[in-house]
Design goal:
The complex is a heterodimer of chains A (about 450) and B (about 170). Chain A has about 450 residues and is mainly alpha-helical. Chain A has helices at about 5-20, 25-40, 45-55, 65-75, 80-90, 95-110, 115-135, 140-150, 160-170, 170-200, 210-215, 215-225, 230-240, 250-265, 270-305, 305-320, 325-340, 345-360, 365-380, 385-395, 400-425, 430-440. The longest helix of chain A is centred in the middle third of the chain and has 34 residues, at about 270-305. In chain A, about 55% of the residues are buried. Chain B is about 75% helix and about 0% strand. Chain B has helices at about 5-25, 25-40, 50-70, 90-120, 135-165. In chain B, helix 1 crosses helix 5 (about 135-165) and helix 2 runs antiparallel to helix 3 (about 50-70). Classes of the chains: A mainly alpha (about 450), B mainly alpha (about 170). Chains A and B meet through helix 1, helix 2, helix 3, helix 4 and helix 14 of A and helix 1, helix 2, helix 3 and helix 4 of B.
Chain lengths: ~450, ~170
């Protein structure tokens, strides 16, 4: 069997194993184990465990459990309630204003946390019920929460960019800076979409009754204080890291501490909240880490059969594609695979295959990191497999059905694809900020 | 179900819960160690070389020893396109079959872990760094965690088997 055929066969068997509904890490792990044993016999038996040491050396992944912890603390801390109240009053008068406010809330949460879990938890428990109560269209707002929370992995800090940085050997600070403007641009595009749609279909997002949001200007300005804590947290974490004072993993510890303090000051921390938080943190961290562990073993089998070389020769020698066609092919293939296979595992398995190709074709790996993350965001939301879908199903109020969740993402995926195309055509959107900081 | 299986499930579940709940608190160790590093380097100007490495060791222990408990909590994501349409009993039936993936993978992981630990003990392997810590303790912890994960998978298999036959085990 040729190496290309082995690679495709491995992908297909992984898909088949996943379809059985067994835990994802086991499905990936068994395919890599069996492939290693078949290819290298007894010598392959140690391959799965060697991945544990690769993971061990990827110490920037320490940010993962810390960000998960921080996300749960933030959603418990009540910071989000104040922020929501602020956006509610300031934007309630606009058609679809609460949805716009929710996107802005998500941007603020994203600037404090590097995953979509926090935004999802806050969106589903605070924003969604409020908007449902005020007669917002449930399909639209489900999409708003899903799309908004996905900004968590693009707006700095971002765990996906940390993972990408380790695979592509690029500095995380540059990657984070590169994600900032595209993230804000995407948020703006979401807002434009919501405002335009609600302008033509006002019943989707009615304005909040005047007596609900009318208050003296002084009171209104007072509400803006809700923004202070998030800004401080952002500064302690991302600010100190970009300025080079704390290292990446240290800054995530500083962020976790800051969030804990914020919750403590508000008197929200009790035994029960703490216990819930650290238990859920352990659960989600273990899920991600075991998936990454299995995916790394899969990746090293791919390394062994020279899959990166095979893809290179397929795209460049056999199909004779131009660099841009290769780039588009890579993004499309990732989107399709991201739909059916586990998104984190895809990142770990596919990025090592694509990054050398990106460098070979003369594209900037930092810019590609942003494209990759946007693609990842889309993959997180597209059925049948996506973490945001998975989390949404677990957290959404009962009146939101699975079909609602599936239908809700369509317009937002289109907007995100537009953002992806914009960043592809105008690389400066991503590259301006990191280049500016570097040149200083 | 035979009595020894019931006892096995009880003992292993108890052990996993205890160990997992212990591992759960390691998150604070990670935060504290990294914070210590940031503070000593920036404020009192004493860089500590061992902090990052200690945090690395802690993370490995965290997710490996916490693994069995996370399995009990059912935190692991599944591709449930088809799976979610089955009744709980049919899901348990399916899980009984696919548990073989889990067990084979974990056995392989365990073989690798044991041989790696043997090597570390034989040659007194140390991590090549300023701190130069021995690799033996972390490898022993990993062997322990993976063993427990394997035992927990078998326990989960028994529970699924019982559920498939319409009995509730613990």
């Amino acid at each position: 069997m040729s190496y290309e055929a082995i690679a495709i066969f491995m992908f297909l068997s992984m898909l088949l194993m996943m379809l059985t509904g067994q835990r994802v890490f086991a499905a990936i792990g068994i395919v890599s184990t069996v492939a290693a044993l078949l290819l290298w016999g007894e010598g392959g038996v140690e391959m799965p465990f060697n991945a544990a040491f690769k993971l061990f050396n990827w110490y920037p992944l320490l940010t993962l459990p810390l960000f998960i912890y921080m996300g749960y603390i933030l959603s418990e801390s009540g910071i989000a309630d104040d922020l929501y109240a602020m956006f509610h009053v300031w934007f309630g008068g606009l058609k679809g204003g609460l949805a716009v406010g929710t996107i802005l809330l998500m941007v603020v949460i994203s600037a404090m946390n590097g995953l979509s879990v926090a935004g999802m938890a806050i969106g589903a428990t605070i924003a969604l019920p409020e908007m449902l109560k005020r007669g917002y269209d449930k399909i639209m707002i489900t999409g708003v929460v899903q799309a908004g929370s996905s900004l968590g992995i693009l707006v700095p800090p971002s765990v996906v960019l940390v993972l990408y940085g380790m695979i592509a050997r690029q500095p995380v600070s540059q990657l984070w800076l590169a994600g900032a403007i595209p993230g804000l641009m995407m948020a703006t595009l979401f807002i434009i979409y919501i405002v335009v749609r609600c302008h033509f279909q006002p019943h989707l997002g009615p304005t909040v009754a005047k007596e609900d949001r009318d208050m003296p200007m002084r009171e209104k300005l007072k509400l803006l204080r809700a923004g202070i804590t998030p800004f401080l947290i952002f500064f302690c974490m991302t600010g100190l890291f970009i300025m080079g004072i704390t290292s990446l993993v240290e800054s995530s510890a500083v962020g976790a501490t800051a969030a804990t303090l914020a919750a403590l000051v508000r008197g929200r921390l009790n035994r029960k909240v703490m216990e819930e938080t650290i238990r859920k943190t352990l659960g989600i961290s273990c899920m991600f880490m075991w998936v990454i562990l299995a995916a790394l073993a899969f990746g090293s089998v791919f390394d062994g059969i020279g899959a990166a070389r095979a893809i290179e020769s397929l795209f460049i020698t056999n199909w004779d594609l131009t660099p841009w066609e290769v780039l588009i092919m890579m993004q499309l293939s990732y989107l399709v695979m991201g739909m059916f296979l586990d998104d984190t595992a895809m990142l770990v398995i596919v990025a090592p295959l694509y990054v050398p190709l990106v460098k070979l074709l003369g594209f900037d790996p930092i810019w590609y990191g942003v494209l990759y993350t946007i693609t990842c965001q889309i993959a997180y939301m597209t059925p049948p497999f996506g973490y945001n879908l998975f989390l949404m199903r677990a957290m959404a109020p009962p009146e939101i059905t699975l079909m609602d969740i599936y239908r809700s993402i369509i317009p937002f995926v289109m907007v995100m694809t537009l953002a992806l195309v914009l960043v592809m055509v105008f690389p400066q959107i991503a590259m301006w900020l990191p280049e500016y900081v570097r040149s200083r | 179900m035979p009595k020894f299986i019931v006892t096995y499930v009880k003992v292993i579940d108890y052990l996993s819960t205890k160990c997992g709940r212990l591992a759960m608190y390691l998150i604070f160790v990670m935060i504290a160690v990294l914070l210590l590093d940031a503070v000593t380097r920036n404020i009192i100007n004493i860089p500590l070389s061992w902090c990052i490495e200690l945090a690395q060791f802690t993370m490995a222990a965290y997710y490996i020893v916490g693994g069995p408990y996370s399995m009990q909590l059912d935190s692991h994501v599944r591709m449930d396109l088809i799976y979610s349409r089955f009744s709980p009993r049919n899901r348990a039936r399916l899980d009984c079959f696919t548990a073989i993936f889990l067990v084979v993978y974990l056995v392989c992981l365990l073989i690798g872990a044991i041989s790696s630990t043997k090597y570390a003990i034989e040659y007194d392997q140390r991590k090549f760094s300023m701190w130069n810590p021995s690799m033996i303790p972390i490898k022993l912890i990993m062997v322990f965690g993976i063993t427990l994960m394997l035992l927990q998978s078998i326990s989960t298999f028994f529970k699924d088997l019982a559920k498939a036959r319409g009995i509730q085990l613990s």
